[in-house]
Amino acid sequence: MNWDAAVIGAGPSGSFLGWKLAETGLKVIIFEKSKFPRYKSCGGGLTKKAVELLPEGWQNLIEDHIESILVTYKMEETAHLYFKNPLIFTTMRDKLDTWLADFAVKSGAAVIEQTPVLDIEYSQGKFNIKTPSRSYTADVLIGADGPASIVYKKLPFNLKINYAKAYEAEVFVDKKFLQKQRSKIWLEYGLISRGYSWIFPKKKSLIHRKRYIPEKRHRC
Ligand SMILES: Cc1cc2nc3c(=O)[nH]c(=O)nc-3n(C[C@H](O)[C@H](O)[C@H](O)COP(=O)(O)OP(=O)(O)OC[C@H]3O[C@@H](n4cnc5c(N)ncnc54)[C@H](O)[C@@H]3O)c2cc1C
């Protein structure tokens, strides 16, 4: 069987696009190397604009409503911005990504989990997609396979990508501290040389990330 479109990766972009394409009646296949639900390090913050694109039911995924942003420099408060309406909704990516992949399936797309794409060839107007068990053909190929994208590596031209290092931890803290961080994003500048850190609150934990900007950008 030949597919109209093959999407590599069932993260938010792959599942969302697969869902929208399948809704138009196209035959869509989505390849995902992991098995859902799969954990992913992420703030999981969805803006108002993003949730407006989602179908009913996204509210069940919400971990916290962000109503203020605290900015500190070397732990001293420099600004605390409050918003009338929630600016961002935090989610857990295992739940969000599984939910979106289910929508793609409901609209008629085939989502095949635990199926890494190993190689892609293009010949006679078709993409030949190789997985460990078999090959598939499709008219259109969509790369939604994240930062270590195999689709990107197969492009016939060299796009320059800048990389920066980031470390993320999900931290389980006591209820009192968690309550203090509720509904607030905390951005800290100054403690990390050439970088910054943030805390995003979730229902039961805090996601803490440190990001470093390299002096010389690494290019590939
Ligand atoms: C620490 C951190 C915090 C972040 N916080 C936020 C935030 O709060 N809000 C926000 O909007 N963004 C945030 N981001 C960015 C966000 O994670 C990405 O923009 C988003 O995940 C991109 O989605 P995607 O679907 O394009 O790719 P991904 O989510 O990376 O999904 C790619 C999928 O492709 C699959 N895949 C990869 N290679 C293959 C292959 N060869 N074969 C089959 N499947 C494959 C992977 O398993 C994965 O499921 C954060 C990123 C990081 C690192």
How much is the radius of gyration in Å?
A: 20 Å
Largest sheet descriptor: 6 strands, mixed
Q: Tally of extended strands?
A: 17
Strand order of the largest sheet: 8-2-1-11-10-9
* General form: globular
Run of helices and strands: EHEEHEEEEHEEEEHEEHEEEE
Strand content: 35-45%
Q: Which class of secondary structure composition applies to the elements?
A: alpha+beta
Structure ligands: flavin-adenine dinucleotide
What is the CATH third-level topology name of the largest domain?
Answer: FAD/NAD(P)-binding domain
| Overall helicity | 10-25%
Query: How many separate domains?
Result: 2
| CATH class value of the largest domain | Alpha Beta
CATH architecture of the largest domain: 3-Layer(bba) Sandwich
Identify the CATH homologous superfamily of the largest domain. FAD/NAD(P)-binding domain
Model regions low in confidence, pLDDT < 50 over at least 5 residues: none
Mean pLDDT: 93
N-C termini distance: 36 Å
Can you lay out the helices and strands and say which pair or pack?
Elements: E1 2-8, H1 12-23, E2 28-31, E3 45-47, H2 48-51, E4 64-66, E5 68-73, E6 76-82, E7 88-90, H3 93-106, E8 110-112, E9 119-123, E10 126-130, E11 135-143, H4 150-153, E12 162-163, E13 165-171, H5 175-181, E14 184-189, E15 195-201, E16 206-212, E17 218-219
Parallel strand pairs: 1-2, 1-11, 2-8, 5-14
Antiparallel strand pairs: 3-7, 4-7, 5-6, 9-10, 10-11, 12-17, 13-16, 14-15, 15-16
Helix pairs in contact: 1-3
Flavin-adenine dinucleotide binds next to helix 1 and strand 13.
